[in-house]
Amino acid sequence: MEKIQHSTIKTNGINMHIASIGTGPPVLLLHGFPELWYSWRHQLLSLSSLGYRVIAPDLRGFGDSDAPPSPASYTTPYIVGDLVGLLDHLDIDQVFLVGHDWGATIAWHFGLFRPDRIKALINLSVQYRPRNPAVKFVEGFRALFGDDYYFCRFQEPGEAEKEFASQDTRILFKKFLTNFGPGPLYISKELGLRGVKAPDTLPSWLSEDDIDYYATKFDKTGFTGGLNYYRSFDLTWDLTAAWTGAQIKVPAKFIVGDQDLAYNIPGVKEYIHNGGFNRDVPFLQEVVVMEGVGHFINQEKPDQVTAHIYEFIKKF
């Protein structure tokens, strides 16, 4: 880990922290919520040892990167703009792009907006979610799961922050990193996160040191930056009307665990396996469903995920 280099660059009006290691073709890794560059600690080391220059930023709103206060500053055009600026700053023309959770959503939209900058795309956990002109994203989740679904509960500014502040941050991370699937995550107004169980013991892939790293960073920054991704998603729906029905035309691979909350949303398996996904991502070459694996797949099964990434990108 001490070989990983840390730096801060200016991009798209913010300061962005990046972790990087290695030389060779560049691979850009995008984390999700509630995460950091650190979620890619295993892939930074393993992919660099295979001959790649591996770069993992703290996305806007997270960790040591700037966190603009307004939710409107977290739409996917803004985040993709940050990443295009990052590539320009590092003088990188094209990149192998890998995303997980919100990072996957950003990566799909990166492929929609700027396919010219992507050599190949590998996304984990969250499949492409095409824009339905009749239903906004949050409305769709509320119709499926109701107001207590975590995505809906995160919408009101200040509400989730107040709930999170009532819990020890270390306990919070133990709950978050072990409760994303296979069933929906509900946070009731009555119980809040007290109704979400923390594990008696950590799973083998997660250490107390890992929990400490996340908790220390989020104690410093708070959660508002990350929550603003949820709060801006309907604005992203508004801003991406011009891309309704557009295809993502880059070579792509998708990896998901069968115990992942995202994979078990009603309609998702049908979309992935019955032709919808291939319609929207016509150069999708492979879908991998890993048995017995949950949402935080790149941390839970790091060696297998690295192997899946490497097997795909070495072809280009």
From TrEMBL:
Keyword Hydrolase applies: yes
What keywords tag this UniProt record?
Answer: Hydrolase
The AB hydrolase-1 domain is annotated at 25-298
Q: Highest taxon of the source? A: Eukaryota
Alphabetical list of InterPro entries matching this protein: AB_hydrolase_1 (IPR000073), AB_hydrolase_fold (IPR029058), Epox_hydrolase-like (IPR000639)
Q: Indicate the family of this protein.
A: Belongs to the AB hydrolase superfamily. Epoxide hydrolase family.
Q: What is the protein name for this chain?
A: Uncharacterized protein LOC107426290
